[in-house]
Amino acid sequence: MAVTIAGADAYIYANVIDIEDWQDSDMERKQRLLNVAERTLTNRYKPYVIPDDAVYEFVPVLAVAFNDTNKLQQYGVKQFSVKSISFTFGSGKTDLLDLIPNSVLDLIGEANGVNLTKRRIGRSVR
């Protein structure tokens, strides 16, 4: 199957709590968010089938992470004020892989009969 904006709308409106940033996006931005979500998951989990629902679950997370306010953090802004309202961000840029929620891993794992976790296993040097 192929991910679509209509499919994403239906899934997000039925299954996601925070939908405002997705809802407020124009069609071009929605398509870009879908493209990035699908590419990120496909590249990270190459040996696995990525179900459309996993992409749709990831898309609203990206919509929030790259909304008008939060994208300033992605650009390295630490703090700004607008009409006596101050915004302060914690750390700087966030890797897209860090934004993948566990619910997405559960959907990919379920579709492929595996248990996926965010934990990365690697060598350590002492």
Task: Provide the descriptors you would attach to this structure in a database record.
126 residues; mainly alpha; two-stranded antiparallel sheet; 6 helices; globular
Low-confidence stretches: none
User: What structural category arises from helix and sheet content?
Assistant: mainly alpha
Rg on CA atoms, Å: 16 Å
Largest sheet: 2 strands, antiparallel
Spatial shape: globular
Task: Please tell me the overall pLDDT.
Answer: 84
Major beta sheet, strand line-up: 1-2
Structure annotation, total helices: 6
How many strand units? 2
Q: Quote the beta fraction.
A: 5-15%
Task: Encode the helix/strand succession as letters.
Answer: HHHHHEEH
The figure for the number of domains is 1
Percent helix, as a range, is 40-55%
Q: Report the span from N to C terminus.
A: 47 Å
